[in-house]
């Protein structure tokens, strides 16, 4: 969960990412929390993050004026934000389905650790998606500007002034 704290710095600009990342971070720890007997605190934490996510999505983003994101400039066929919204939706559905399966369907005797492995695998996919999203947003925020080399101060080599 310590890795999820810096993502809160993006709350103002990338609120959907921020709250989704908090939920994904909790989700990734679910097998460990179950082993420690902390299923109820997990659900409380996820519910709180889910409520904040819904408040941010439906209250704050509906008030925000539409802006053109730096990631969408020049890419009429591709939008990083639109792809990320699909990833968030799919991962949320996947989290709900995996929790439902874990509660309702016992793992086969041959694979007793099936659900912890599925939780770890899906969490890894979500964290890779988060890394790619942040990297692409960072890349586009630079707007492909090449660094410019400025000329330093002129150094006089004229020895007549001495």
Provide a compact summary of the structure.
With 162 residues, the protein is mostly helical. The chain contains 5 helices and no strands. Helix 1 packs antiparallel against helix 3 (39-63) and helix 1 packs parallel to helix 4.
Question: Would you write up a description of this structure?
Answer:
- The structure is a single chain.
- The mean pLDDT is 81.
- It is built from five helices and no strands.
- It is mainly alpha-helical.
- 60% of the residues lie in helices and 0% in strands.
- The chain has one domain.
- It is elongated, with a radius of gyration of 23 Å.
Tell me the Rg in angstroms: 23 Å
Q: How confident overall, as mean pLDDT?
A: 81
Largest sheet: none
Supply the number of helical segments. 5
Distance between the termini: 65 Å
Low-confidence stretches: none
Strand proportion, as a percent range, falls in: under 5%
- Structural class based on helices, strands and sheet pairing: mainly alpha
- State the shape: elongated
Overall tally of structural domains:
1
Helix proportion range: 55-70%
How many strands?
0
Question: What is the element string, with H for helices and E for strands?
Answer: HHHHH
Chain-wise SSE layout:
Layout: H1 15-28, H2 30-35, H3 39-63, H4 80-104, H5 114-141
Labels describing this entry:
162 residues, mainly alpha, 60% helix
């Amino acid at each position: 969960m310590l890795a999820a704290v810096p993502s809160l710095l993006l709350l103002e600009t990338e609120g959907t990412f921020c709250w989704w990342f908090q939920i994904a971070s909790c989700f990734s720890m679910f097998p460990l929390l179950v082993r420690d007997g902390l299923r109820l605190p997990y659900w409380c934490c996820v519910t709180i993050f889910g409520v904040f996510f819904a408040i941010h999505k439906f209250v704050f983003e509906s008030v925000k004026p539409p802006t053109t994101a730096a990631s969408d400039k020049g890419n009429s066929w591709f939008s990083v934000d639109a792809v990320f919204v699909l990833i968030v939706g799919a991962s949320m559905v996947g989290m709900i389905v995996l929790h439902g399966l874990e509660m309702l369907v016992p793992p086969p005797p041959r694979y007793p650790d099936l659900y912890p492995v599925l939780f770890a695998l899906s969490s890894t996919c979500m964290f890779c998606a988060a890394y790619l999203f942040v990297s692409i947003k960072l890349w586009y925020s630079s707007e492909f500007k090449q660094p410019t080399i400025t000329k330093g101060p002129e150094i006089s080599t004229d020895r007549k002034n001495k």
